[in-house]
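Q: My collaborator sent me two sequences in one message, no labels, and asked for predicted structures for both. Can we handle them in order? The first one she listed is below.
A: Yes, handling them in the order given. First sequence, followed by its structure tokens:
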Amino acid sequence: MTRPNHVSSLARSQSTDDHKRTRPGRLAGFWLGLLVVAGCLLSTPGLHAQEEDAEEPDRQPLATDPVVMLSVTSVDRSLEFMRDAFESVDRGDMAGVMDDLMSRAGDLKGFDRTKPVGMALFLPSSLPPQPIPVVYVPVEDMDDLIETMQLGPVRVEKNEEAGEGRYELTGGRGTRHIAVRDGYAFISRNEEFLDADVAILSRMIPQVAAQYDLSLTVRPQSIPPLLRDVFMNFLRNQTEGQLQRRDEEPLSQYLARRANGMSTLEFLERLVKEGEQMTIGMRTIPESSGMEIELHVDATPESEFAEYLDDIGSRASSYASMFSAEEPFTLSVSWMLEEREQTAAHGWIEALEAGLVQQYAGPAGEEAAAEADESAERPLPPELARLLDPLKATIDAGHLDMCVQMRSVDADQFALVGAIHLVGGETFADGLREVLTQVSAREGDFTIELDVAQHAGVAIHRVQGGEARPQDERVYGEKPSLYVGSSGRTLWFAVGQDDAVTELKSSIDAVSEAAGSREAERGYPVQMVVRANQWLGLPPDENADAAGAEIAAEAFTSSNDVLRMELRPTENGVVLRMNLDEGFTRMLMLTLAQRYDQSQL
């Protein structure tokens, strides 16, 4: 799939004709909200700016490229999609509500309701940063458009001194300037900006809107380098300050929090410095009346970031045979780890080690852990080392490979099964047996049974806690157990009743049978499937919103309830794509209609 990396590539994608475009989707909240935002921007022009009465002694250079672009394909398509969506849930009366709203807005007279509308944000090279938002509105008749705009607390007058097609909009907290060109009215607080930089939008608007019904694009490379450096220095200082250990914070919790925080910070630094652009967009799927949502992340070509994104999916999963679109939930991850991620993962293992040592030592260990210094050595029992060393070796190997699946074992009961690739699974199995043996000899509100099952060389052990959480019993049945075991290369686990062992055995067999025939090809780093309708068969949650459950039951059937998500590398980045069946848009429409009904009571 071709995707825009910059202006020139956007221009190459302009071949899509209006009559070939898919009809609007069924996600009304996003579209309606965007129209409201656009209306607010037009009627309250001082919303995003400071007062402009003061003279600027030193004018900063203007921006040359938008940092952010928000675009809706057209007002008419948005209205059509909402009408169709409400009709699909037998709420055609909501069309009258929309007509009333449009009437109050003068039916947007003067707008060209067939063309894109939106906003762009430019960022000049100045400190402190002073973003310049530009609203762009397609013009059918400027005189009518002025009438529509003046329905709000503003006044629009011609600015003859500025030239042809120039106007001033006054009201709110300042003055806005309007330039009409190329069939659009561009509205900005910076008059000089309209003379120079805004011209680029005339070329970009149609191409951006051609990709999606609704889109938001962020372009890090359009941020001036000085501002990028200032922002990242500020972010690093703030993050490092927040990642200091808090008073009475357990060592394990602190280590995990710090590992997550530093990994996220380093990723954001790379994204800002080497990211070309990020686009989140939504479009409809006419064949299924569903919706497709995509997140594109494009890196600067030949950068380290581009190499990283290209490499993450370079290895197929060993557990592809477990993946299924028929189960209530399946998540598959086959991700090649870079050094940053390996460092973070080792931080998580360090946190796990601190927690295990604390729990293993009992009350004395908990007291010592509260006062432990992060740099102090923690004596590690040999059996715990046999558990943790394989995890560390797996991280060093650089491939996170796992599959987790929720299976329906009864009409109202699930079992969770999962597999995680391990380097040194035999060592892990030995350590697991020793640890469970020692823990089982202690007094506690738990039950441990070793070797409850043996299958394909895997010894499966059972662990059951004292009092299960209500939400767990709702999904897995009364007092569910954890079943765990390890083969030479896989950590196997399951949660549920006795049926969970049967499901775990079937997964072991499926993976074993497929091992010899697995193709050596690039994989999807992340895949996920959810079947929403199957979750409705679980016992009701007493604390859940009953009205929401009723809406879901009305929205979903066994043929319209699938949510699919996949992440895959592209030429210079990755795309995360989410497909939602019609049931999800039905649920949204029913929810919006219900909220409107409640507002009228």
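Q: And the one she listed second?
A: Here it is, processed independently of the first:
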Amino acid sequence: MVMNYPGLPTTWGWIVAACVAAIVLWALTAPTPGTAGERHLAARWRLGRTPLVGKHLLRLTTRHWPLVVLRVIMVVLFLLIIAAGLFGSPIPQRNIATVFTWNIWWTGVIISVVLVGTVWCAVCPWDTLARWLVHHRLWRRPAPHTSLNLRVPRYLKNLWPALFLFIALTWLELGAGITVSPHATALLALFMIVLAVASQALFERSAFCRYFCPVGRTIGCYSQLAPVELRPIDRNTCERCETLDCYYGNEALPPCPTSLVMGRIQQNSYCISCGNCTQSCPQQNIDWQLRPPGVEAMRGSRPHWDEAWFMLGLLALTGFHGITMMPFWEKGISHLARMIGDSGQLLTSFSIGLAICMLAVIGLYALAVGATRFWTGAQLHYRHVFASLAFVCLPLAFAYHVAHNLNHLVRESAGISSVIANPFGTGTLPLCLAETSQRLNHLLIPQTMLHTIQASLIIVGFLLAVQILRHRLQRMAQPGRGHRTALLPMLLFAAVITGFHMWLLMQPMVMRM
């Protein structure tokens, strides 16, 4: 029997609609961002100066052992998940491989971006295992010639490999159904290890982290919205630096794995918070800082073509996750399969549905960009405007991503204590109807609180998207052309996407586990 989660009440739909209308009205009537706004965006607060905890936080980033301990813990947990998936119960609700990976880890990783930016990448078990297997090191500089240290080919030095893998993982997750197969989940984890090890053995530094990892690149994109950053304390000190230990490393510590120079860093996207720069800097000139949320997407990040497509892919694929869990999705795919003669797992029909959903979002965005370029009167190439405005997609995707995954976390993790006690699911039986119903009605937090958080996320995501749009358009618009009129196409795009996301959250969602 298929069980459905109830969607948000209609009242929340009206509340979100009213907030969206108010934000649009504000965007169309408020003056363009001025000097005061720029000063606000430039504000920073060093966490190292925070009373009581500041010094302790700084020690955590300037010493290697805290990260090493966390990496070892993550590797042990990761190996447990692989073992449970390969040798444990095939019942997804009873096996820690599926419950932890799809309900807790993936949601937790995305939420962690708000609190700690890209810190997950610093303790990632894929990269830790790859470095240990190839270089036989957990943190020290590897010995020479432990890998081929080849330069990454130019055609791979972009985010297209990560986007392709992200689409492939979505296809496996939702089409092939690996989320309900502990064995398939373990095989996927092993596949990611193989990719990380092969990349570490072939290429210089951590090419897997910078170019290939779909999880790391998702975190990197979302971290441009994060209220934390790892930056120089005094950029003048970096300008005077002659050794560039943050980039080259030193005798004890390896170089920056993603080839960043701390004195020139402008965005979080490729920083994996590994601690190499904070530990190797001879001037101790690097610290964690607080900043206004979304400031990087508003003015700090440069538009790149491949990054724009990855952000647009994030927006399309997060919405697609929601569509596939609607009761009407299975009926629609079955109808399409009968029309084209598809059989078996209906993977061809699923692939067509995935392509249609992605093309719909891309087409709508492309039209909005074209209209914006026309109304701004900017003498900019369409490709440049396309890339620059793609940052508007980030808060829309992030807000729905977290709101949707909270459903899985709060509703499907109700039996997590029994899974922790018996991670392999030894001797367990499938969920009976009574237990399924109990999990459906006994959430980790009250349902009213869940609905409030979800609706609030959608509102905040739209507000951030509008703020990003206003700041980016201010730099594009030609003097004398109507700035407010130029806002309309992308405002409409953001409002349509927000309305669609809210509509998805208001529908009953099919229970995955």
